[in-house]
Design goal:
This protein has 482 residues and is mostly helical. The protein contains 15 helices and eight strands. Strand 4 and strand 5 form a beta hairpin. Helix 3 runs parallel beside helix 8, helix 4 packs antiparallel against helix 5 and helix 7 runs antiparallel to helix 8.
Length: 482
């Protein structure tokens, strides 16, 4: 493998691994804040205990995410120094905001939330976790703005002397139409990830073989399972709606990416959406199972509209940018797009099933007979996989987003072949990749063990009260009701 190929592989490994923890940090911080807000308003001890559990999961995830984020920045400087040299002025402000503002907000106030549990007034203590949740959103937005620049460069000029990009308008960078569309889509996917984790843990402790907690904890585990299911379901619906908007923006700014996602070689009106395609012997183009007119509607909002094909776009780009291959790897773009959708839909279906089976106080029946208990047994059997469904959807989504942009690092301005560090050798890249893999393997074991340790323990109250005192933060509180 060449230095370019190894640099791309290394960046893919580092980024995909880091992004396993980013959505969890975003969603768990907001879920912790939401649960604590309900506890603060009602005094219901279920929500206080759930807050403490989710907060512990957040702290473990945040700590691992910090380490993986540092490795990602190190890898960027190691393997892509030529790209950093030319576009450092553009990414500098976004990375500064993410590191100096958003990260410090999250780290400082997460520490205040944890260590101030018995020292701060309940209302002030609640405010600290909301600051953490807001900080994660700021961090996500500015990083997505930097990525959106790579998809659709705006707000920059090229220095005629040095050839370096200069940021002309920070406002244009922050209001890029790609980041405006991608931000809600990404946040919705993040809530699917956090919701699926709580769903799995809640079902495991409430109805699974791990049910060894005190009887008083059972209502809290049931609450966590249903909160996780509602979060996953709502996130899945939001992902579909925001994904439709993002697809239309993508068609406008990167038509080749949409054509690659559908393996659409010929420019077509009333374009169908391909559900499944295979390459048959003797055929130049794959056989496809299609939904008529759907692609035109998804791409433009008009079922009769024309969608540009790969062949015409390749000829157009060759004329515009010079001779070369401007077509991404079509099988990767096609299948990552469908796997992204498929795993997301599957996670949403599992969440909807759990909500329907536990409606109006009903319980799962993983040991009974009949069709419903049979499905419940399968749900219990695949509990460890459920959090992986939205994680897989997010992973394939990012792989599609980045690989279907090739051969560009910054679309239309800077090619991937020009961005790799010029002095790196394949041996150095293999050695650093092995080092990253070793660090990430250790972190994976640590995170899983922390999550299992936290989840297996007994639940504790958010603000323990003396005997005979109310179970909440104020004088007038509702009594616990299950």
């Amino acid at each position: 493998m060449t230095a370019l190929e190894l640099s791309r592989l290394q960046f893919a490994v580092v980024t995909v691994y880091h992004y396993l923890f980013v959505p969890l940090s975003i969603s768990l911080s907001a879920l912790t804040a939401g649960l604590q807000t309900v506890w603060w308003r009602t005094g219901d001890p279920r929500h206080g205990r759930a807050t403490m559990l989710v907060g512990k999961l957040l702290m473990a995830t945040f700590a691992v995410g910090v380490v993986t984020g540092l490795v990602q920045e190190f890898q960027f400087g190691l393997s892509w120094s030529a790209f950093a040299q030319y576009y450092g002025d553009v990414f500098g402000p976004t990375l500064a905001i993410e590191g100096m503002l958003a990260f410090f907000l999250e780290a400082t106030f997460l520490g205040l939330w944890w260590f101030g549990r018995d020292r701060l007034r309940p209302g002030l203590h609640l405010a600290t976790i909301w600051v953490v949740a807001i900080g994660t959103l700021i961090s996500a937005y500015v990083i997505l703005a930097a990525n959106a620049f790579m998809q659709h460069p705006v707000g920059v000029t090229l220095d005629p002397t040095t050839g370096r990009a200069r940021l002309g308008s920070f406002g244009a960078l922050m209001s890029n139409e790609v980041v405006v569309a991608a931000f809600p889509h990404t946040i919705a996917g993040a809530f699917m990830a956090g919701g699926a984790l709580l769903l799995a843990l809640g079902v495991w402790r409430r109805w699974g073989r791990a049910t060894s907690s005190p009887a008083d904890d059972a209502p809290t585990w049931r609450l966590l399972a249903r909160v996780g299911a509602w979060t996953t379901l709502a996130g899945g619906v939001a992902v579909a709606l925001t994904g439709d908007l993002l697809g239309k923006v993508m068609t406008e700014v990167q038509p080749m990416k949409m054509a690659a996602a559908e393996a659409l070689y010929e420019t077509t009106d009333h374009a169908p959406f391909s559900l499944f395609a295979v390459q048959l012997p003797g055929q130049e183009q794959p056989w496809s199972l299609d939904v008529p007119w759907l692609l035109s509607f998804l791409a433009t909002g008009d079922p009769t509209a024309t969608v540009q094909g790969i062949d015409d776009l390749q000829a157009q780009y060759a004329t515009q940018f010079g001779a070369g291959n401007y077509t991404p790897w079509i099988p990767v773009a096609y299948w990552t797009f469908r796997l992204m959708i498929g795993f997301g839909v599957l996670a949403t279906v599992v969440a909807a099933w759990l909500l329907w089976r536990t409606r109006r106080g009903r319980d799962l029946e993983p040991t009974g007979r009949g069709w419903f208990p049979f499905a419940d047994r399968w749900l219990m059997r695949f509990l460890p996989v459920i959090p992986a469904l939205p994680a897989a959807a997010a992973t394939f989504g990012w792989l599609f987003t980045e690989t279907a942009r090739q051969p560009w690092l910054v679309f239309g301005l800077f090619r991937t072949t020009d961005g790799v560090s010029p002095t790196l050798t394949p041996l150095e890249l293999w050695a650093s990749l092995a080092g990253f893999a070793l660090v990430y393997g250790v972190l994976a074991v640590v995170w899983v063990r922390l999550v299992l340790h936290v989840s297996r323990g007994d639940l504790v109250d958010l603000h323990p009260q003396p005997d005979g005192a109310p179970n909440g933060p104020d004088d007038a509180l509702l009594e616990p009701s299950y």
